[in-house]
Amino acid sequence: MYKINGSIWIEGERGAFIGSGRVVLLENIKKSGSISEAAKSMKMSYRQAWELIDSMNKQSQKPLVEKTSGGAGGGGTIVTKEGERVIKLFKELQNNFRKFNETQSKKLTF
Amino acid sequence: MYKINGSIWIEGERGAFIGSGRVVLLENIKKSGSISEAAKSMKMSYRQAWELIDSMNKQSQKPLVEKTSGGAGGGGTIVTKEGERVIKLFKELQNNFRKFNETQSKKLTF
DNA sequence: TTTCGTTATGTATTTATTTAAATAACGCCT
DNA sequence: AGGCGTTATTTAAATAAATACATAACGAAA
Q: Where are the domains positioned within chain B?
């Protein structure tokens, strides 16, 4: 039996802006309050997590996260209101895509 | 300005079955009559082309291509009726996906 | 001023993926 | 029988991508 699968993302001029991996990262940052903790929980290298966040923030009009270094606890990272909005928006897109795939799958004649 | 992009494919039990790259390969085989010529025209290695074809044929009930080695001209590969049908089916899916993306893009509020 | 855990960044290492090269089998044709 | 160009397959090489490691900056708190 066959099924349709796919992936979807939002692009800016400089390539990928928001995709499923980036949204999971944002959600883990929201939970943990830090990039390093989020990366660890996803078994992603800190560097990659940092680069994804950097890519998103540079392409967005308003920053999706705000980072502080130094201070009590060493600093941390929070997801902004705009970040929350983008997470929600992408999840809706993803859900629509899932429905699209289900509909299309029914048309398959094998 | 942002836009939605994505990729879509048909999966079997053993992973990818048909996707855009595989369809282009099938079309080039149809044009040229050989895997090696098709690979060359796409700047793809023969090995990769062969593996993609092998993967498709193994997953399909009916073969999508038929290959002969030896003989006049060394042999060759032709796309079967089933192969043609799959090409057409995937292109329709891809077109629907393009329309989906256009619709969803209009909903983006950035 | 020292400590702490985080962000930030460069460099090296490792891992994964892709391509290249070499070789054999095939079967029609001259 | 020998030549030809294709399919088929193994092994080596090259390229790309991800990870690991090392180090510095930061700033509140003890």
A: 11-99
